[in-house]
Amino acid sequence: MKRTRIIIALMYFGIISSVMISCSKSEDNNGSNPTPNPPDPGLPQQLSDVELMDKLQEQTFKYFWDFAHPVSGLARERSDANSYGGEAPNIVTTGGSGFGVMAIIVGVERNYISREQAVERLNKITNFILNGDRFHGALPHWYNGNTGKVRPFFTEDNGGDLVETSFMIQGLLAARQYFDLDVSEEQALRENINAIWDGVEWDFYTNNKKSLTWHWSPEYQFQINHQIQGYNEGLITYVLAASSRTHAIAPEVYHNGWASGANFVNGRLYYQKWQLPLGPDFGGPLFFAHYSFLGLNPKGLQDTYANYWDQNVNHTLINREYVIKNPKSFEGYSAVNWGLTASDDNTGYSAHSPTNDNGTITPTAALSSMPYTPEESLKTLRHFYYDFDGKLWGQYGFYDAFNQSENWYSNQYLAIDQGPIIVMVENYRTGLLWDLFMSCPEVKQGLTKLGFSSPNI
Description:
Elements: H1 3-13, H2 49-65, E1 91-93, H3 94-109, H4 115-131, E2 142-144, E3 160-161, H5 162-178, H6 184-199, E4 215-216, H7 235-243, H8 251-256, E5 269-270, E6 274-275, H9 308-325, E7 342-345, E8 348-351, H10 363-367, H11 374-386, E9 393-394, E10 397-398, E11 402-403, E12 408-409, H12 415-429, H13 432-438, H14 441-449
Antiparallel strand pairs: 1-2, 3-4, 5-6, 7-8, 9-10, 11-12
C-alpha cells in the first residue's frame, strides 16, 4: 500500500523503485488469473440511488471474493498480472485484505454469499496468517500468497509493517464481533482472530521511544526509522495499540508521538467555509478520512485534538471545493467529478491531493466519502456510472483512476482503493462496520484510555 509512506520511502532512498511503485499495464493477465473485463457499453439508465449503491457494492465485492488469491484467500495487491515483474498474481496485501475482510461481512449481510462460505474463507485467511511470517506479531506489508513468506515491499521493508497490521486487525475484530454463533467453525475463527490480535507486540514497536515506529525487520531492525506521527492514516494504529489486551502502549505514546508530528495541528479556514482541525494544508489525500474510519466510527468521536466527524466532513468538502475551483484548469473537474487521493495515474502512482494535483480523479475518493457527503457522493456515483460510456466501469466495479486532461483511463484495480468503497457505502447505509468494531470491549477501553469520548463507548 503506497500512501504516506511511499512518499517517506522515496525521500529515504531518493529514487523511485519499480518494486515500490508500478505503472499498471493494459495487457491482460496470463493463465487462469481473473482479468478485468472491457468497459460495459450497455449501462441501464433507470437505476435509483439505492439500486446503484446495490450494484456498486456487489460488483466491488467480487474483487475480494472472485479475485482473491486461491491459496491464502487474501486480496491480491492489484489486478495487473504484469506488475512487479510478473509477480503480481502471487503478491497479496495485508492492509487491503483487512478491508476485504470487512467486505466479506458486507457480502453476507447483502446475501452475495452465505454465512458459511464467509466463515470458510475467513478461516482460510486467518490460518494462513497464523502459519505465515510475523515479526513480533506484526504482519508484513505483502505476503507471497502461496508460501506465507514476506514479499519485501522494498529492500529494507522485509519485516513487520505496523500500519498494515492495524488495517488487518481492524477488519478481523469486526469479523470476530459479527461471527458470534456457538458453532465450531465460528468458534475456531474467533480463536484464530484473537491469536493474531493478541500476538501483535505493539509496545515493541515503540523502540523504547514515546512514539510508534512503522517498520521492523529481523535483518535491518528499525533502520527505516519512520515514526507514525502527524495526521495521516495511522490513527487506527494508535487506537489498537492502546486497546491491546497483551502489549498495550501507554497514553503518553499517543500524545507525545502521534500528536507531536509535523502537519498534525491545522486549524485554518478554507474557502471561508470549513475549518480543518488537523492535518496538512487542504487536508491531504482523502484516504486519511477513510482507512482509519472503516471501523472507527467518527460520529461524535472527540479527543483533546479534534472532533473527528468535523475533521472528516470538512476535509472532504475542502477536497471537493478545490476540484470545483480547479486552479490548474484540468479537463473534466466539476461538482460531480471530484476526488483526489492516492492511486495509479498516467505516470505511475501518487498520493493525489490539492497540493499534489496532476488532473487525476480517483473514484474511491468521492465514493468512500459517502458517509460525509452523501448527496454530493451519490451525484458523483451517478456521473461516474452513466456519463463516461462505460469507460470507468468493469468486472470489479469502478476502475482505479482516470485523467481526462491526458485522455488516460485505467483498466485496473487496487485492493486498497476498492475496499473502502464497499465498506464506507455500507457504513453510510447501515453503520454496520462501525457498529461491529465499536462493540469491541477492548476498543472502548483503549479509546477511553487515550482520552476519547464518543456515544459509542
